[in-house]
Write a structure and sequence with these properties.
Dienelactone_hydrolase-like; about 290 residues; 8-stranded mixed β-sheet; hydrolase activity; globular; AB_hydrolase_fold; 10 strands; hydrolase
């Protein structure tokens, strides 16, 4: 999941402001000719008691009583920061209750990186990879159960409808684990430039697909695919064997293209991926 050698030269600025992100969204909406007003969104920072401690997270939902379907967002390797808050807010404006947790709550509260982070810097990389090791498959299963229970306890959530889960970078694998952990609740899984989805390891996420009941959207980065062109083939074979509907596509963009603040952010391809995500949720979260 997001190994060291896919990142050299990738610089991430986790301090991207909400205003900057909002202006980008507005500009894209203007280009697309969108005329509808932005839906007011309520947000609150929350602490969620887990089996391993207290997870800091943020939850978003449209103004009003709802209810709306729920979505869990697993952030990328740099975890919860302003850009993922804006993703959560933007998705909530589409009519969802959205939870975005801090991956590394067992070690420290978010943001875990407060200044520009360079994966080419050995010291920066070592600090982050040490945090990454705290997010094990077993820990993810425990967290997934807790986060889904938390969402279902919110009065704004429509518990009659399936839940969506989406992940970026290492969050792609976490999303598949979530779908296998709470299969009766997860109706859709989306992975954006995910890593380690179909490996030769005994705990590879693709081995869990038969336990899931979701529809999948797997969007690969070109440089991830160049590194291992057969991974998408293995994943597709596993999807077919598990009889899971899935769209698996390699985008003409680099690992991290969906996340504003990274050096490889690609606005056009990020918006294309966002449109596919919304279509998936509209179709499946019933």
């Amino acid at each position: 999941m997001c190994e060291d050698d896919i990142h050299p030269g990738l610089i991430v600025d986790p301090t991207v402001s909400r205003r900057t992100f909002g202006l980008t969204v507005a500009a894209v909406a203007g280009i697309a000719g969108a005329a509808q007003a932005t839906t007011p969104v309520v947000s609150r920072d929350v602490d969620i008691k887990t089996a391993d401690g207290v997870a800091d997270a943020v939850v978003f939902h449209p103004e009003g009583k709802g209810p709306w379907p729920a979505v869990l967002i697993w952030p990328d390797i740099v975890s919860l920061r302003p850009v993922f808050r804006e993703m959560g807010r933007r998705l909530a404006a589409e009519g969802y209750v959205v939870l975005v947790p801090n991956l590394y709550y067992r070690t420290r509260r978010a943001p875990v990186v407060e200044s520009t982070f360079d994966f080419a810097n050995a010291d920066d990389r070592a600090k982050l990879m040490a945090l990454r090791k705290t997010v094990t498959p077993d820990a993810t299963e425990r967290d997934a159960k807790t986060y889904l229970a938390y969402l279902d306890a919110q009065p704004q959530v429509d518990k009659r409808r399936k839940v969506g889960v989406q992940g970026y970078c290492m969050g792609g694998a976490l999303s598949i684990i979530t779908a296998a952990t709470v299969p009766n609740r997860i109706g859709a899984v989306a992975s954006f430039h995910g890593g380690g989805l179909a490996t030769d390891k005994p705990d590879s996420p693709h081995l869990l697909l038969a336990k899931t009941k979701a529809e999948y959207l797997i969007l690969w980065a070109k440089n991830d695919d160049d590194k291992d062109p057969n991974e998408k083939v293995r994943l597709k074979a596993a999807m077919d064997a598990a009889k899971r509907p899935a769209k698996i596509e390699v985008y003409p963009a680099a690992h991290g293209w969906c996340v504003k603040g990274s050096q490889v952010y690609d606005e056009a391809q990020a918006e294309r991926a966002w449109a596919e995500l919304l279509a998936l949720y509209k179709r499946t979260l019933k």
